[in-house]
């Protein structure tokens, strides 16, 4: 169906909305670019087999998200959660971050006071959420988040995505449109370019049925005002935790961070060699100059490719701590040297270590490592054993 056709699409009919609603998302009198919605409760609209909704639907002091649904029923999964929508979590203490220029990475996010591992630095509702496997039947390139390059015809995508951008408040729209777009001039339309440059996967929200496979193709991507200003390092110090009930993304420190230091998240798989990481990062148009990239050696590449299996094996080693404790502690030291304490596998390893100390009857060490584990476990939420 061509955009603008008077006939409603299947999804429009399902959502019970007319095609006119699609082009006047705030009602007849509002919604054009540059106009602020006066409606207090935004209605859903369906365009090109996608449903556009706002979370929460009423204007909210904690912010609103524009959510593009591939499968309209996904909305119910979130809206039917007990207590939905909860307020966005608030950090303890005074504000602890600022968005500033960096010498070589554009804008970045810095902490303005010392931060402890496990601390909530900020939480925010996304400006925009789109499904990774966003598919629209009559658009040439239907998997917008999984392909990259200049060969695609993406301008049509921008017309569709513009529906969500037009629904944003003026402040949110300005924040969204000011985000970096490294795809400018190489094929992607502006809005799609912004999503590709700034989107983070939300792994606990699947578009459609929860058992859909391959799961990774059906996650959502979020674009946020502050989180999307965080630059990359292969030695990350912050991770995101998306809470469905408050529909917000929390930035949580995965290391102690000193006042004045920059926050870094990893945009690539940190268990890869420096060369593979470089090729994964090429689509963001920069070369990483973190310590682990600059000082990469065959030995550090080998370690990065092996530590994952070893860390997971530590779950078995706990039954024979006398044989394995030294090896496990050495693995922990090596992970710290590579700056990998902000990863799931480091948290997993800490859990193995405190269980080993428990099995060895070394209560003081067990307590010390358990405390470190609990601080690191804010995002991963591994079971305490
Ligand atoms: C999600 S944005 C991060 C915020 C961005 N610096 C800004 O000014 O809006 C991603 C872009 O930031 C830049 N960037 C991120 N990490 C970088 C790094 N380690 N070195 C150089 N540039 C980086 C790249 O241009 C990348 O495409």
Automatic annotation (TrEMBL):
InterPro entries reported for this sequence: SET_dom, SET_dom_sf, SET_domain_protein
Domain SET: 95-268
Top-level division of the source organism's lineage: Eukaryota
Segments of this protein annotated with the region Disordered: 1-68
Pfam (any one): SET
Biased amino acid composition, Basic residues: 1-16
Gene3D superfamilies: SET domain
PANTHER family from the UniProt entry: SET DOMAIN-CONTAINING PROTEIN 5
Name of the protein in its database record: SET domain-containing protein
Upper classification of the organism: Eukaryota, Fungi, Dikarya, Basidiomycota, Agaricomycotina
């Amino acid at each position: 169906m061509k955009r603008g056709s008077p006939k409603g699409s299947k999804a429009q009919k399902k959502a019970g909305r007319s095609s006119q609603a699609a082009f006047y998302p705030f009602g007849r009198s509002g919604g054009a670019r540059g106009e602020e919605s006066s409606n207090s409760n935004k209605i859903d609209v369906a365009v090109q087999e996608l449903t556009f909704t706002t979370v929460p639907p009423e204007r909210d002091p904690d912010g609103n998200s524009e959510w593009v649904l591939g499968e309209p029923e996904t909305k119910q999964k979130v809206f039917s959660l007990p207590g939905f929508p909860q307020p966005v979590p608030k950090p303890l203490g005074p504000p602890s971050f600022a968005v500033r220029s960096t010498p070589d990475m554009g804008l970045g996010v810095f902490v303005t006071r010392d931060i402890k591992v496990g601390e909530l630095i900020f939480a925010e509702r996304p400006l925009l959420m789109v499904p990774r496997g966003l598919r629209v039947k009559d658009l040439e390139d239907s998997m917008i988040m999984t392909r990259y390059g200049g060969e695609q015809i993406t301008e049509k995508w921008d017309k569709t995505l513009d529906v969500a951008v037009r629904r944003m408040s003026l402040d949110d729209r300005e924040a969204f449109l000011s985000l970096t777009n490294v795809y400018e001039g190489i094929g992607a339309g502006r809005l799609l370019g912004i999503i590709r440059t700034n989107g983070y996967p939300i792994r606990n929200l699947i578009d459609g049925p929860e058992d859909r496979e391959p799961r990774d193709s059906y996650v959502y991507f979020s674009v946020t005002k502050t989180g999307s200003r965080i630059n990359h390092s292969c030695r990350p110090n912050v991770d995101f935790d998306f809470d469905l009930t408050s529909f917000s993304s929390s930035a949580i420190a995965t290391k102690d961070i000193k006042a004045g230091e920059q926050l870094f998240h990893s945009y690539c798989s940190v268990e890869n060699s420096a060369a593979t990481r470089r090729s994964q990062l090429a689509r963001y148009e920069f070369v990483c100059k973190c310590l682990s990239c600059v000082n990469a050696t065959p030995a550090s590449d080998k370690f990065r490719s092996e530590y994952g299996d070893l860390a997971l094996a530590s779950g078995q080693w706990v039954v024979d701590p006398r044989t394995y404790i030294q090896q496990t502690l050495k693995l922990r030291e090596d992970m710290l040297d590579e700056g990998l304490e902000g990863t799931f596998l480091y948290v997993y390893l800490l859990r193995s270590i405190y269980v080993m100390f428990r099995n060895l009857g070394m209560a003081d060490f067990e307590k010390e490592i358990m405390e470190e584990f609990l601080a690191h476990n804010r995002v991963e939420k591994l079971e305490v054993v």
